[in-house]
Write a structure and sequence with these properties.
The complex is a heterodimer of chains A (about 110) and B (about 140). Chain A is an alpha/beta fold and about 110 residues long. Chain A contains 4 helices and 7 strands; from the N terminus they run βββαββαβαβα. Chain A starts with a strand and ends with a helix. Classes of the chains: A alpha/beta (about 110), B alpha+beta (about 140).
């Protein structure tokens, strides 16, 4: 999976460039982000502006990253979530688990204030 | 609208899912359906159902056959998915969502069947004559 990584101060912005995060590519996405966590990136914003479709495997991959970061005193926030993806977060009540922001700047700001 | 059926057969590979969704969208969009949420629900349920088959019935092995029969009528879309892999009747029985406030207790899997049951109007799993059949129906409303 093609992913854009951008460091903004202490925050790593992860932007998947593919339209789908699903069973066929979610492992690849997860392992590439875990590489970044292993390199010391503990504050991560995942920008989902390009993602139009996510299934339960995609959700599972985000939960795995959330757990991994929480256990290393890190944190993850999501931003720019498209409507179809928002629907699956609401349906599975994961919108109550993840910090979700309308824009990348707002998501980054929450880390700056911590 | 006159009812009609389309049969699609494909190999048990997760990387075929985006193509499968495109084919099914194309079949449905030629008909009276013009509702993005309806399409999204069908895309998602197809993904969840086929992923379950590939992972659990076929143990992630390629080269197995999955057959989908779509039947479009004036009132609903009926999808029948057939495989010849391992039987998994229990997989479709747990429809509840395990909720927790503790991040460490959050499950990374197990939401697929919940999604199917939430978004489709009818979900039936049967095993007979060495074939497993998952039938799902969604009304246009």
């Amino acid at each position: 999976m093609e992913i854009e990584f951008t460091k903004k101060d202490l925050v790593l912005v992860v932007k998947p460039l593919e339209k789908n995060i699903e069973a066929g590519n979610s492992r690849d996405f997860k392992s590439k982000v875990i590489e970044q966590i292993d390199q010391g990136n503990k504050k991560i914003v995942i920008n989902l502006s390009k993602v139009e479709f996510m299934d339960s495997s995609g959700l599972g991959c985000l939960i795995s990253l959330l757990k991994q970061l929480a256990s290393h005193q890190g944190a993850v926030a999501l931003c720019d979530v498209q409507d179809p993806v928002k629907r699956i977060f609401s349906l599975t009540r994961l919108n109550q688990v993840f910090s979700i922001f309308p824009s990348e700047d707002e998501a980054i700001k929450t880390f700056s204030s911590r | 609208m006159k009812s009609f059926s389309v049969k699609i057969s494909f190999e048990s590979r997760l990387d075929f899912l985006p193509m499968l969704r495109k084919i099914i969208r194309s079949i449905c969009s030629d008909q009276v359906i013009n509702n993005e949420n309806f399409f999204h629900d069908i895309d998602l349920c197809l993904n969840e159902a086929v992923t379950n088959i590939i992972k659990h019935a076929y143990n992630n092995e390629h080269d197995h056959e999955i057959e989908i029969i779509l039947t479009l009528s004036a009132t609903d879309l009926f999808i029948k998915i057939l495989d010849t892999g391992a039987r998994n009747p229990r997989a479709y029985k747990n429809h509840t969502l395990k909720e927790t406030d503790k991040i460490e207790e959050l499950g990374e899997s197990g939401r697929g069947v919940f999604i199917l049951n939430e978004l489709m109007d009818e979900v039936i799993y049967k095993t007979e004559e060495k074939k497993n059949t998952l039938s799902m129906r969604k009304f246009f409303k």
